[in-house]
């Protein structure tokens, strides 16, 4: 079996992420959405988002993070600084977590 071939890009990974996030729909895009749109692994998205956040700040824009939430009890991870999906809810210990979503705002 051969490895999947990533789509051909005309820009850098972070440039492609920025373009995808700038045209993101209202609820934003999750790391899974971004990984399939840009052609990188879901685990790599968080690292690229951290760098992209700094680049956007220099342009007068910001990366808005719509927090992850627990499906079972509704707990919102609004104070979380990391871009990855939490492993478990601190309130009910459920592992059914809606991932955070991202978008670019001015």
From TrEMBL:
<dbReference type="InterPro" id="IPR049159">
    <property type="entry name" value="PF0610-like_wHTH_N"/>
</dbReference>
<protein>
    <submittedName>
        <fullName>Transcriptional regulator</fullName>
    </submittedName>
</protein>
<dbReference type="InterPro" id="IPR036390">
    <property type="entry name" value="WH_DNA-bd_sf"/>
</dbReference>
<feature type="domain" description="PF0610-like winged HTH N-terminal">
    <location>
        <begin position="28"/>
        <end position="63"/>
    </location>
</feature>
<dbReference type="InterPro" id="IPR036388">
    <property type="entry name" value="WH-like_DNA-bd_sf"/>
</dbReference>
<dbReference type="InterPro" id="IPR038767">
    <property type="entry name" value="PF0610-like"/>
</dbReference>
<dbReference type="Pfam" id="PF21476">
    <property type="entry name" value="PF0610-like_N"/>
</dbReference>
